[in-house]
Every structure is written in C-alpha cells, then in structure tokens.
Write a structure and sequence with these properties.
Layout: H1 2-18, E1 32-33, E2 36-40, E3 43-44, E4 52-73, E5 76-89, E6 92-95, E7 99-105, E8 108-111, E9 115-121, E10 124-127, E11 131-137, E12 140-143, E13 147-153, E14 156-159, E15 163-168, E16 171-174, E17 177-182, E18 185-196, E19 199-205, E20 208-210, E21 213-216, E22 220-228, E23 231-241, E24 244-254, E25 265-277, E26 280-292, E27 307-319, E28 324-337, E29 346-358
Parallel strand pairs: 1-4, 2-4, 4-5, 5-6, 5-7, 6-8, 7-9, 8-10, 9-11, 10-12, 11-13, 12-14, 13-15, 14-16, 15-17, 16-18, 17-18, 18-19, 18-20, 19-21
Antiparallel strand pairs: 2-3, 22-23, 22-29, 23-24, 24-25, 25-26, 26-27, 27-28, 28-29
Amino acid sequence: MKKTYVATLLVVAMSGAAFADDGETGTAKADRHYFTVQAFHPVSTNKSKDDFTYANFTLAYGRIGEVRGADLSYGVSLVGRGMTGFQGSCLLAYTAEDLKGAAGTGIGSVIGAGLYGAQGSGLFNWVGGDMVGAQGAGVVNVVKGKTKGFQAAGGLNLARGEVDGFQLAPVNISGNMRGMQLGVVNVAGDVKGVQLGIVNVSKTMHGLPLGIVSISENGGVEAVAFGSSLTAANAGVRFRAGYVYTMISAGGCNLDRDDDRDKSVAGAFHLGARVPVSRFYLDADAGYVYLDNSAFAEMGEGDRTDRMAVQGRAVLGFRITDSFSVFAGGGTSYIFDANGAFRDGEFEPLYLGGIAYQL
C-alpha cells in the first residue's frame, strides 16, 4: 500500500512539474514549480538543486533552491537559499540562508544563515547567523549570531552573539545577555537581567544573579572568618556578582544550647546585597542555619535535638587594604527544633564580627 501511495505521489508531482513556469530565482537554470517530490535527488521532479517550489516532499534525500510554503521530509532535506514557511523532517532539515517561518525535525535542524521564526528538533538545532524567534531541541541549540527570542534545550543552549530574550537549559552560554538565563550552569558576558541557577558566571553583572555560586569581574570571591552569638567559630566563602552575594559557611560551638557546646556543628547559606561607599561597605542578607547538636556525640537519650535558624543580618565593613577587610554587625535569629513546628520557635538577638580576604 505504501509503495502504491509513493508511486502515485510521484506521478502526480511529475504532472505538476509539466505545468511549472520559469521564474527568477537567482540563476538562469532555476525553474519554478508548484510542488516537487524527491526520492533521492536527482531522482526527483526538480531537475536542478537551484529550483523554486511552493511545496517540497522528500522521502530520503532532497535538494532544492528555495521554498515558499512547506518543506516536508522523511529523511534529509537541504534548502540551498531561503525558506519561508514551515520546514519539517524526521532526520535533518537544512536551510543555507534565511528561514522565515518554522522548522521542526526528529533529529537535527541546520540553518546556514538567519532564522526568523521557530526551529525545533529531537536532538539539535543550528543557526549560522542571527535568530529572531524560538528554538527548541532535545539536546543542543546553537546560534552563531545574535539571538532575539527564546531558546530551550534538554542539554545546552549556546548563543555566541548577544542575546535579547530567554534561555532555558541545564547549561546556558551566551555573549552579552539582556533577559534571563534559567539553568544549572549559566555563563554570559555583560548581563542586564537575571541569571537563575546553581552556578552563575558573568563578565559583568548589572542585574540579579540567583544561585549558590555567582561570580563576575565586578564582584569577587572572599574567604570569610567570623564569630557570632549563635555559633562561636565560623568560616566560609562569599561569592559576589555585582551588588549581590551568596555565602556558604560552616561553624561550631553552638551558643544556643547550654550543653555539649563542643559537640555541635552548623552549616549556613546566606543571600544578600552589598552597598560600597569609598572604603566602607554595608552588607544586608537573609540566611538559613542548620545546627547539628549531635554531630560528634553518641546517639541516645538527651537534650541534643538538632535545631534550625532563619536569620536576617546587617553588617558594616571597612577595607583596610584592597584585599583585607573587617566587619561587624547584628540582626536576629528565629530558632526552632528541627523535628518540631516552625511556629514553636523563638526570636533571639544576633551579634557577629569577623574578617574577610579577597581571593
């Protein structure tokens, strides 16, 4: 049945080609067709790879000069100049120059120049020039030029030029970014927007980085040591990107309890913002602290319940040198049992002071 259908389609296409009129498509040998059918070029209704058509249907491998309408393929379809409309393929769709419309494939879609529309595939998308529109791929999206629009991939978005829009993937990489990157790892040039991920890296940050580790040239990485009225000894690393910072720290000697102070450890994460004024700076942050009160103690009965704390802090710092600074401040801690209800906690004042060194 399939063979009869394919043969009928080829016969009809041949008949359509007989009524095709010549048109100006960029070369003297190019013909204009209403529609074309290709088994494996040059076994096709179009004699030249430079021909023009409104609809192109490919079984295994097809080549055509320009399509204004639809290009549909079971295998591989190559459009040599421009594609306006929809391009879909089970394996690979390629447009050498501009695509104005949409492209969708099962495995890969490649556009040699610019994309103005949408491109989707099961594995990878490639645009050799600028893109205005959207890309969606199961694994990788690549744009060699500027991007204005949306990229979504299951693995990697790579935009080598400027991006004005949104990138969504586990790993996002771009030139200058104006918009948002959402992923596990985000890397960009100058950022005016939002980076949301576990690791955010930028050349300069003029927006909002939200993550565990955020680094930029107009920020830095600091080693921090401090004491507080909750945990006496603490050390950590502070990552700054623009005006925003995150700090990961560990401490010991829980001053919140009257027993086994030397048998407790704490882990903390803080997110905040810095306002520099000459050699002074003001830091304000909010954070979470887990107080493990039985880390080095024997398990069993006793008042060693683990506790948690939610904190708000503000400190004033002074840079003694370009790398070394001291700071002190305070705030509040809301402390509650780890196995209890949040509403059963209590507020306690917080005081802290320490030193920081710019790495």
